[in-house]
Fold Histidinol-phosphatase.
Amino acid sequence: MAFTMHSHSGQFCPGHAKDNLEDIVQHAIAAGYKTIGLTEHMPRTELSDLYPEELVPSAEATLAELFPRHDAYLDEAVRLQAKYADQVHILIGFEGEWIRPSYGPLIQELSAHPIIDYFIGSLHHTKGIPIDFDKAMYEQAIEACGGTEEGLFDAYFDEQYDMLKALKPKVVGHFDLIRLFSATPGKILKGAPMWEKVVRNLKVVKEYGGWLELNTSAFRKGLEEGYPKKEIAEEWLAMGGRFTFSDDSHGIAQVSTNYLKGLKYLEDLGVNEVWTFERQAHPGVKEGKKSGLTEKAVTVEEFRASLKGL
C-alpha cells in the first residue's frame, strides 16, 4: 500500500504550493495511495518569519491570515477524511516550524488538537534565516554562522537537536535538508566534526521512538541522494531506526514523484519495510478525543505494487 506522510496544497499554502487539497487527494487515490498524511505548514507569529512570496499584498495581511487559514485547513481535512474514507486513509497533521525555541509551545498547542494525528518535526531555518528557499538566503545563513558551510551545518544540527529534545516528533522531516544549497551537497560528513552532532541527533530520535522520513523531494530538487543521504541512513539503520516515506508534494504534479527511485534507494540500503499509521477510530474523532494510532509496517514490495502509472 503506497502512502505519503508529508504533503502540501496551494489552497492552504498559497504561493508555496499549488492546487486545491481535494484535487490532490483525488490524484493520490488515482496514483494508488492507500494512506495520505495531510501536513500543511503551521502558522507563524512573527513578520520576520514570512517568506518573500508572502509579503504581498502586505506582510501584515499575510500574518493575519495564517491562523484562520489553519482552522479552515482542519475543517476541510475533516470533511475530506469522511468523504473519501472508503478510498484512502487520511491522516491529519501539520509541518512544524522550529524557527526558534519560542515556537515550541505553539507547536505543542497545535498538536494537542483532537483532530491532529501527528506533526512533522522540521527545520527550514538556521539562525532564523531560511536555508531551503534560495541560494541567496542560504548564503546569508552561512554569514550568520561565521562565514563557512561547516559553521552553518553545525548550527543547523544544534538547532535540530533542540527541536528533537523539546518536541519529540514522531516523524522527523528531511533530516539533512541543510544540504540542498550546499556547494557540495554530496560531501562526506562522516569523520568531520559535525558528524558527532548527526549521530547525537539520530540517537535522540531512536531513544524516543521517532521515525525518519525517506523524503523523495531531494531527487526532485536535483540531489543524487534522498533525505537523508546514504551515510546518515546507514547510521540510522545501524541503530535499528525505522523509516517512513514521503513525496513532500507541493501540488498534483509532485504526488509520487521519484517514488520508484526512492524505493530503490531504500532497497539498496537493505530496507524492506517502511512505516505509517492507522487511525482508530476513523474517520473523525469520538467524544472529542484523539484517535488512537497503530504503527503499521508496509513492505517495499507491497508499496511498489500499489503504485499506478509509474
Summary: DSSP finds ten helices and eleven strands in the chain. The chain has a mean pLDDT of 97.
